[in-house]
Amino acid sequence: MRTQLVVNDMSCGHCEKAIYNAINALEGVTHVEVTLKTKTVDVEHDLTPDALINAIEAAGYEEIEVIS
Questions:
Q1: Domain boundaries, given as residue ranges, for the chain
Q2: 3 Rama class: left (phi>0) / alpha (psi -120 to 50) / beta
Q3: What is the pLDDT of residue 30?
Q4: What pLDDT, in 10s, does the model give residues 6-61?
Q5: What is the CATH number of domain 2-66?
Q6: Phi, psi of 51, deg, nearest 5
Q7: How far apart are CA 11 and CA 49, in angstroms?
Q8: pLDDT value at position 38?
Q9: How far is CA 8 from the centre of its chain?
């Protein structure tokens, strides 16, 4: 499954790396691409979107929406 999220409170390279690491650490994730310029996170996985959101929230981000 592919899910794309927007993390509106991602604002710097550190944020980009923290979100990448949080998602990449999840079992069931096969590919992660985090793009600071568009504030998007593209994930190939076999998890629920809620699991992805929970991982990003645990990394300290709150303004997250699933766009596809």
A1: 2-66
A2: beta
A3: 97
A4: 999 999 999 999 999 999 999 999 999 999 999 999 999 999 999 999 999 999 99
A5: 3.30.70.100
A6: -65, -40
A7: 22
A8: 97
A9: 11
